[in-house]
Amino acid sequence: MNQIIYQIRKELKQNSDPRTASTGQNFFKEKVKIYGVKTALVSRISKAFDKEILAMDKKEVFALCDELWQSGFMEESFIACHFAYIVRKNFEPADFKVFEKWVNNYVYNWASCDTLCNHTIAAFVEMYPGYLKNLKKWARSENRWVKRASAVTLIIPARHGKFLKDIFEIADILLLDSDDLVQKGYGWMLKAASEAHQKQVFNYVMKNKATMPRTALRYAIEKMPENLRTKAMQK
Question: Is the pTM of this model over 0.85?
Answer without folding.
Answer: yes
